[in-house]
Amino acid sequence: MIGQYPLGAGSFLALMVRSPDAFLVPTLDIDLAWHTHQLMTIRYQKDCVVLGGRYVDQ
C-alpha cells in the first residue's frame, strides 16, 4: 500500500510513526490515502510497524 500513496504520503506516515508527540497535518491527497490505508486494518498495522515499530492511531 505504501508504494501506492501519492508522492510524500509514505514519508508522512513514517514521520507520524517516528514523531508520536508531534501535531502533523497532512495535505488533502495524503489524508485521503492515509484514511483509505487505515480501512485495511491488518495491512495498515503491519506497514506502521515496518516503518517505525509502532501502530499510528488517528
From TrEMBL:
Source organism superkingdom: Eukaryota
Protein name: Uncharacterized protein
Higher taxonomy: Eukaryota, Fungi, Dikarya, Basidiomycota, Agaricomycotina
